[in-house]
Write a structure and sequence with these properties.
Pectate Lyase C-like; disordered N terminus; 17 strands; 6-stranded parallel β-sheet; mainly beta; about 240 residues; 7-stranded mixed β-sheet
Length: about 240
Amino acid sequence: MSITRKPSPEGTRDRSPPTATSSPSLLTLGTQGSTVSHASDPDSVDDVTFRVGGAEAGTVPTAFIDNSNNSILDDVWAWRADHGAGAGTWTGDQSNTGLIVNGSNVTAYGLAVEHFQKDEVIWNGQGGEDIFFQNENPYEVPSQSAWMSSSTQDGYPAFFIPGSVTSFQGYGMGSYSFFNQGVAIENAMAFQAPDTSGVQFHDLLTVFLNGSGGIESVINGTGAPVSSSFGGPSDVVSYP
């Protein structure tokens, strides 16, 4: 979301409130579809928080879109607010996705993406690597029917890699549930990725923090469910 102000006549102070305008992201890095390699001089996003709502009500489809090949994401936290202005309801501070990676050979260190309403991370780029990932599912899902990635799949994965991706490495990645509306919300899987030898995960886990429902599997139906019966952690040491 961007903020604009009306121009002020010379010699006066503008006291009008800011006007919110819609944008596709809070930050878009690079040009989508670019094949330019930046291996010798990569773009780097370091120690950055992307916040949707909380300080003031707001909405954006995706917090951060990374189109830059060979880029480095170092200590990035994308957060759809769970408290503060506009937060606490499913229709407040709406945002589908915290991070979309379209660039190839992107590396993320210390990535946290929390409370977004659909696929929280979508990693489309080839040759990606993530070292540490932390996620909490959205808290305030009002019903299972309001949170379905397909007619047969409950919820949305915290980290989604589409079938077109053939190479990726993930290390030390976790997702947690706390559905707090008193409704038994289920998430079919925390991680969803193609079953191919080039897409590999190491040390995945899920945890039931509190609330109702839970996460039915860690990745692609593999890994024990977590719920009030077994809070976890549910570990998958390596996949596939």
